[in-house]
Amino acid sequence: MTAAAQASLATPGEQRLSMFSRFLEGSSRALLARSGLRRGMHVLDAGCGTGSMTLWIATQVGPRGTVTALDCSSEALETLQRQAHQAGLANIRCEQVDLGTGAALPGSADIVYSRCVLMHLQQPHMALRSLHAALRDGGHGVFEEPVLSAYRTPGDRLLWAFAVSLYTRYCAGQGIDPEYGASLRAAVAEAGFAPQSCELDFSPVPVAQAKAYIDHSLEASGRRYVDAGLIAPLALHNQRKAYVPRDSDSGRMTHFHGVTQLIARKGA
């Protein structure tokens, strides 16, 4: 089955997550490279999901390195294990863990990595402390968290405004912090890390793909938004029409909302 055929069978939520991973892939890989990721290392991928970054990290550390993939979803970990087997990667170990509980994690990691996970936790400080404890002295924590109010240009803000406003209002009732990236540096320092670099990234995205991503997001989460009283079904249906790609979108670029990228060290 071709990639296009597989995509057509995916749910809107799965398509959204796949596009999200593609949008951030280049900047996330560059961030890990800057942190010193290399062959032979042991890496903890915290909140790995189905492994959008795990598989790549495993290729970078090589057969003498290891990746411990942590997630609360057994289904996500099963998908990751299948993908690892298909890719011939034997250096990935999966472990079901709820990071929000502050549970003890496998120790002596050279790098702990987490992308857009802390924002979903009721007590992210507990997860940060567990991740700090899992690092060896001199190891690095590499974190990425969103700042949905930050945009590179006014045009970018206008394109994303409706979907982001709806999502932000929904988050307010769910204990999700879509601005967690704005406080990431302080939170990481409080957990015992020594921040070394902290930058706001705006990944470039073709306008047509951005519109498709927004539409998948609205389709996947629309029922929840309606049930929460945030929008009427007809209004949601009509708004989605604004994200139908046009011929004029060809070749045009926009940027994803801001994502704080931080590298921190354990120890002085």
From TrEMBL:
A Pfam family that the UniProt record links to this protein: Methyltransf_31
Gene3D superfamilies in alphabetical order: Vaccinia Virus protein VP39 (3.40.50.150)
PANTHER family: TRANS-ACONITATE 2-METHYLTRANSFERASE-RELATED
Entry keywords, A to Z: Methyltransferase, Transferase
A biological-process GO annotation: methylation
Protein name: Methyltransferase domain-containing protein
InterPro entries: Methyltranfer_dom, SAM-dependent_MTases_sf
GO molecular function terms listed in the Swiss-Prot or TrEMBL record: methyltransferase activity
Lineage per the UniProt record: Bacteria, Pseudomonadati, Pseudomonadota, Gammaproteobacteria, Pseudomonadales
Superkingdom of source: Bacteria
Species of the source: Pseudomonas brassicae
Classification via SUPFAM superfamilies: S-adenosyl-L-methionine-dependent methyltransferases
Domain Methyltransferase: 39-147
